[in-house]
Amino acid sequence: MTTSPTGFLLLLAGVLLLWLAPRWLPASTVFFVPFTATAVLVYRGGGSDHWLPAVNWFLLCWATSRVPTFLRTGAVRIPSGARMPLLTFSAFVGFAALSLLMPIWIDGRTSILATSLLTSESGISYPLRFSMHQLLVGADLGYGVLVTMLVAADASGRNRYDALLRAVFASALFISGWGLFEYMLSTFSLPYPAFLFNDNPTEGVAALGARFFRTGDQAVRRIRSVGLEPSILAQSLLAVLPIVACAAWGDRPVWSRRLDRITLAAGIVCLVLSGSGSGLLGLAFMLLAVFQSLPGRRQLGATPYVALILALVAMGTSYALSTTVRDYVDLFVVQKPLSDSGLERAFVTLNAWDYFKEYPILGLGWGSVPSADLVVLLLSNIGIVGFGAFTIFLVVLWRALGRTARSLAPKDADGRLRIAGVRAAIATTIFVAAISRFTYEHAHVWLVFGLALAALTLGQTRTPGHHS
Q1: What CA–CA distance (Å, rounded) separates 465 from 207?
Q2: I need a labelling partner for 254 at 20 to 30 A (CA). Which of 129, 206, 307, 360 fits?
Q3: Does the pLDDT value for residue 405 go beyond 80?
């Protein structure tokens, strides 16, 4: 078991916060959600490396700080109005956990093909049996559920909600600034301090800074900031930028109107520089989702329509007039589905569909089958019952948010903007997962679910109490 200087400092920070200032643990946890490349502990052995991400360490400290209250009261805080969404969420999690027993029942009768067609493992298959892998993906599921539940409980009520959003916005601004710093160092051929936040065991020489993605004669510099890879950085940003956009629009900003807008602008620039095809498509979808979610668009006048039209015109003009922009879009959006990695994703998804047809009820078990999308991944891993539960959860949550927005006072435009932001975040997150992959092992998806559940309390005049 080893750690890095950054990992040691984060371990120490978690212990000190747990002991001296536990009220800062929620903010610390959500701040480190996008830091998917940052490890606090690394275990090397058994033929593979395992590591504890920084966000999981602070999450464990946060959960530990809540244990005395739970033991004393025997109750957990359930946001009022969130009972049905929580019930359907629990059903989804229950089916996902139950599906982990499928490898025990299958016991090697089915083999899983290697995910890569471009390496020496191409064509190799592995018998599916219950192993350490199932325990690890089960732990990832548990961490995700814990993020959702703790955020939903701790951010209940207007003041608590905005307090946690401040940490979310600060995180988005930091990782965007760090990404721009990475790009600047690469532009001037200066060394990048990857050891600070890119210290997990998967990092190698590629972590030395912004890298060039080449195909044919084209070469584009890509960044990943504190993310494992550019696409993960893009997904982390797209999970929160819709909330930032809606907050920057209203009269009650999270930090200040100027700082919220700086966060939005920096996040969009960092997202573009990541060079993620799914991120660029997600950005376009996010703009439409935010526009569609804005409450009372008629009362806002022509401003949102003009802003949307100008953004679309600017994108189209840049593509038509700029060779750099055109090469960039062609490389990461137009040509990506026909590239080797695009064809590999298509093969993996079609292969997962065959596994679903073989085991349609509970799938092959959570995290057992890779797939480069959301729908087939869920169907092949947790079957039609798990996919149905997930779909019902999204529908119930979406409708509950709509009811909460309609219940707010007529003058509470900022409350409706908060709900509009989280609804746009849900839509964008699901869209990106559908066209790339449902990265359940990272916390940004679960953070969005937690914020959505907490937003159901925005119509209350005071923070809800504890309910058994």
Answers
A1: 46
A2: 307
A3: yes
Give the residue carrying structure tokens 């991120």: 279
Give mean pLDDT, residues 64-68: 89
Within 39-177, strands assigned E span: 39-45, 48-53, 111-113, 125-127
Enter the tokens of residue 114.
């290697």
Phi, psi torsion values for 408, nearest 5 degrees? -70, 155
Mean pLDDT of 95-110: 93
Dihedral sign from CA coordinates of 30, 33, 38, 39:
positive
Q: Which two tokens stand for residue 439?
A: 């990265």
Closest CA to 169 of 94, 93, 57, 247: 247
Distance of CA 464 to the CA centre of its chain: 27
Contact 179/232 with Cβ under 8 angstroms? no
So what's the pLDDT on residue 14? Answer: 97
What would the DSSP string read from start to end of 90-119? HHHHHHHHHHTTHHHHHTTSSEEEPS-SSS
Q: What is the pLDDT of residue 466?
A: 41
What pLDDT score was predicted for residue 47?
60
Token digits of residue 245: 């956009």
**Positive or negative torsion for Cα 272, 275, 279, 285:** positive
At position 146, the amino acid (one-letter code) is L
Tell me what the mean pLDDT of segment 47-56 comes to.
84
The answer to whether the beta carbons of residues 77 and 43 sit under 8 Å apart is: no
**Count of CB atoms within 10 A of residue 115's CB?**
17
> CA-CA distances (angstroms) from residue 241 to 267, 282, 368, 452?
7, 11, 31, 14
Q: Report pLDDT for 249.
A: 80
CA atoms of 40 and 51, how far apart (whole Å):
7
**What confidence score (pLDDT) does residue 295 get?**
74
Model pTM score:
0.88
pLDDT of residue 111: 86
DSSP class of residue 302 equals T
- Report d(CA 256, CA 250) in Å as an integer: 10
What does the DSSP assignment read for 318-382?
HHHH-HHHHHHHIIIIISGGGSHHHHHHHHHHHHHHHHHHHSTTTTT-TTSS--SSSHHHHHHHH
- H or E element at residue 260: helix 257-273
